[in-house]
Amino acid sequence: MTGVATASPALRHSLRETLGGGALRIVRRERLKRDVERLHLRLGGTARAVVVKRSRTDAALRNRLVAQRWLPAVGLEELGPPLLAVIAERDGEHASQVHADLPGRPLAGERPPHEHVAAAVQAIARIHTALADHALLAECRLWGGDRGIPFYAGNVRDAIRGLSSPLLERAGPEVVTLRDALLLRLARLAEQETSRAQLAAARGGPETLVHGDLWPSNAIVAPHAGAIRVRLIDWDEAAAGPPEFDVATLLLRFARSQRHWILDAYRDAVRRLAGWELAPEQELVVLFETAAYARLASLLVWTVAETGEHDAAWLPARLRDLVRWFDDVEPVLGAQ
After folding, report:
1. H or E stretch including 182?
2. In this predicted model, what pLDDT tens digit does every residue of 17-72 receive, in sequence order?
3. pTM for this one?
4. Ramachandran region of residue 104, left (φ > 0), alpha (ψ -120 to 50) or beta?
5. CATH superfamily membership of 106-328
6. Do residues 211 and 218 lie in contact, with contact meaning Cβ atoms separated by under 8 Å?
7. Does domain 9-101 have CATH number 3.30.200.20?
């Protein structure tokens, strides 16, 4: 791995300062995924482990705000990332986030235990209801952006502009065919902007803090004393937005046969916690689709942007994936 600066003096100093001082030795480095390592340390004779993630400075800032300001403001810091320190790099564009190594494991796999999924849904509902219409949402929007209809509308427009780039005309016949297929799908989404915005305004949930990238792997679950503890990690995309954005992201990572009970668990949780009554399923499905299409349009924007910076041999495969992902959105909820 080239991303995590495990030997940098700044990181070593921060680890000593954060973990209590003493001689520091990195015993073993364990790669977890790109730009993320678990470091096994000896510090003053004591064995410790931390997780170090290299990210953009803006993403590191959002993680710090979630861990040290936004969730603590509503007493829910135990549900957020266990952030110990953020160390900026000299380039000013990247930083290393240092997290406590958590017990438990990600909510991943083909069919994670029912009780683990239910506990994660409960944690999500607690955050959504606690920060709904909160005064801190102005900060969430300032530092993380907005995942509501502006996100949908802006990314659909930008994706259409990006696909119209002359670069794609010169990328070969397969790319042109895939581009045209995506433009047809985006044109339909652009036509639906007004109706989707009206539904979101009338039937969407209250604005809240959204995780923004709520894949099951970003929920760490651990049984403890007869209960299940949950931590939501990797808040790089944290923002202000409708709760449907997170719920849609989570649901789409599960088989359709599981989505109804997961949605029912969320519906029951927010009703009990805050008295929320979610929209009927037929309207919720459209709200979930809006969120899912917005995420895909955003991914398409950045996919096209990267074609001018690097060798684009990977582009046809990515565009094929995007066509398939757009087509896989509907129906978000299948028959029970």
Report:
1. helix 173-191
2. 777 767 788 889 999 888 999 999 888 778 889 999 999 999 999 999 999 999 99
3. 0.91
4. left
5. Aminoglycoside phosphotransferase (APH), C-terminal lobe (3.90.1200.10)
6. yes
7. yes
